[in-house]
């Protein structure tokens, strides 16, 4: 049983955009664009801390069943976030169903990892069944994404919601009750402090 | 978004047996036998509440790398628990690697579901990779285990530790800080009360 210092791979589930907007009397879809700046701030924090790899839940195939203004809004927010971190310097991989109109064109260049720097796996038009279906041909479709040490979810939900099931099997799961647009750097600090206190047994 | 009443399938991760023993100055392996009575009490509670299906984490292939007295002790505890719930009335299925000496002989009869009553999926000599490897032949090996609504883990750990990754994708995750041998019925009551307050979105 050993205690670890810094997680080598963190997963982020930035949930609560719609509830954040509704609490402010805004249309639900307005919430997504207020999630971009927090995402960039979190990205910069992870770079500064020297986290080698992060995975970010953009949107899922299930999400594309939502009302049309919401779909347009989260697609636009995901594209803006992804292109901006690529511009700032990241080894960016988009993980999701490629042969589908639901994947924004701007993200297609990242079907193979592009760029140098912190590894960012951005899940867009992702679905856990699509991912695991790759095993029928020998490997999961997210095969380039390593095992997660820590998952941080905003918005209070205590579930994975289909997030990278294979990479999540041994990950510690930290929940922030605040909605994602209310992200503060302390959230990550608290998650990392908590993480250091967890035992790592891997069943041994 | 709908709110649910009773979970139709609950997963239980009864962790903390060794730490419980160590806190009492007992050898670690002594902890496991103190987990049997709590398991039977929880089983009776679920039957009384009308929960249709439960999955219980017995032991994993990783666990069989532990010290020999521990292996003997958790195997014995798992056999005693499983045979007793079969005797009391359950539709019992043992899920784990069958062609292996690590699976106790007494459990081999349950490689196909036996008996009538509440469905109990008991994971013994289980490993998530073994489970998913079934997809290469078309289906996961735990194909008879339905999707989980709720997972309850004792012992404070906030991770799945390889527990049924496919069935866990949408499950709500409730953590009890007490060690498993200190199980009290209130733990389940609290988990169910919490569960009713969770929103069910499935990404829609």
From TrEMBL, chains A, B:
<dbReference type="InterPro" id="IPR036424">
    <property type="entry name" value="UPP_synth-like_sf"/>
</dbReference>
<protein>
    <submittedName>
        <fullName>Undecaprenyl diphosphate synthase</fullName>
    </submittedName>
</protein>
<dbReference type="GO" id="GO:0045547">
    <property type="term" value="F:ditrans,polycis-polyprenyl diphosphate synthase [(2E,6E)-farnesyl diphosphate specific] activity"/>
</dbReference>
<dbReference type="InterPro" id="IPR001441">
    <property type="entry name" value="UPP_synth-like"/>
</dbReference>
<dbReference type="Pfam" id="PF01255">
    <property type="entry name" value="Prenyltransf"/>
</dbReference>
<comment type="similarity">
    <text>Belongs to the UPP synthase family. Z-FPP synthase subfamily.</text>
</comment>
<keyword id="KW-0808">Transferase</keyword>
<dbReference type="GO" id="GO:0016094">
    <property type="term" value="P:polyprenol biosynthetic process"/>
</dbReference>
């Amino acid at each position: 049983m050993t205690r670890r210092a810094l997680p080598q791979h963190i997963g982020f589930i930035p949930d609560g955009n719609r509830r954040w907007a509704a609490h402010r009397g805004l249309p639900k879809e307005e919430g997504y664009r207020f999630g971009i700046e927090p995402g960039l701030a979190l990205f910069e924090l992870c770079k500064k801390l020297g986290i080698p790899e992060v995975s970010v839940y953009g949107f899922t195939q299930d999400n594309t069943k939502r009302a049309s203004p919401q779909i347009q809004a989260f697609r636009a927010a995901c594209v803006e976030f992804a292109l901006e971190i690529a511009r700032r310097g990241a080894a960016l991989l988009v993980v999701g169903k490629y042969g589908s109109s639901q994947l924004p064109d701007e993200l297609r260049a990242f079907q193979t990892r592009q760029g140098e720097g912190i590894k960012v796996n951005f899940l867009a038009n992702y679905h856990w069944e699509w991912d695991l279906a790759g095993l029928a041909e020998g490997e999961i479709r997210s095969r380039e994404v390593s095992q997660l040490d820590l998952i941080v979810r905003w918005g209070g939900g205590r579930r994975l919601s289909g997030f990278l099931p294979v990479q999540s099997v041994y990950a510690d799961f930290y929940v922030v009750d605040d909605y994602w647009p209310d992200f503060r750097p302390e959230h990550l600090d608290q998650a990392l402090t908590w993480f250091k206190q967890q035992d790592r047994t891997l069943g041994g």
